[in-house]
Specification:
mainly beta; 5-stranded mixed beta barrel; two-stranded antiparallel sheet; 1 helix; 7 strands; binds zinc ion
Length: about 130
């Protein structure tokens, strides 16, 4: 069991990407699509990274990806976790989030799936290897 402290979990929840945060409550992963130029992108932003339009619509992602890289963050023996970069299956970007696994079980390129954490009524995206 991996212990998580909420001490370090204080995400900035911009109102412009509320759909993303709300989706995590329902165990769904949403990404923005620009209504003006049509590109899909991740991580969510308040505006399109290509044309800067703020006209955004949302679509649901598969919650699948592959492990691009990771590192171990260690505050102390009790306070450590793995931060990973996941290439989304949809190939629209990469997710940087916690990985709920032991470092010895990770391998670059392995299949990963989204995992939705509820910690004190705050919802977080994390990833776990597909077994
Ligand atoms: Zn655009």
């Amino acid at each position: 069991m991996i212990k998580i402290s909420d001490k370090y979990l204080t995400p900035f929840k911009s109102k412009h990407i509320k759909k993303f945060w709300d989706g995590l409550k329902d165990k769904k992963l949403f990404a923005p699509k620009c209504k003006k130029c049509g590109i899909k992108f991740f991580p969510p932003l308040a505006h399109c990274p290509k044309c800067l339009s703020k006209e955004i619509e949302w679509f649901e992602l598969s919650g699948e990806g592959t492990l691009y890289s990771w590192t171990s963050i260690e505050y102390s023996v009790e306070q450590s976790y793995i931060l990973g970069i996941i290439e989304l299956k949809e190939e629209i970007g990469r997710s940087i989030a916690r990985i709920m696994a032991k470092e010895k079980d990770l391998k670059i390129g392995m299949k990963m799936k989204a995992e939705y954490l509820n910690i004190d009524n705050s919802y977080f995206l994390s990833w776990t290897p597909v077994s």
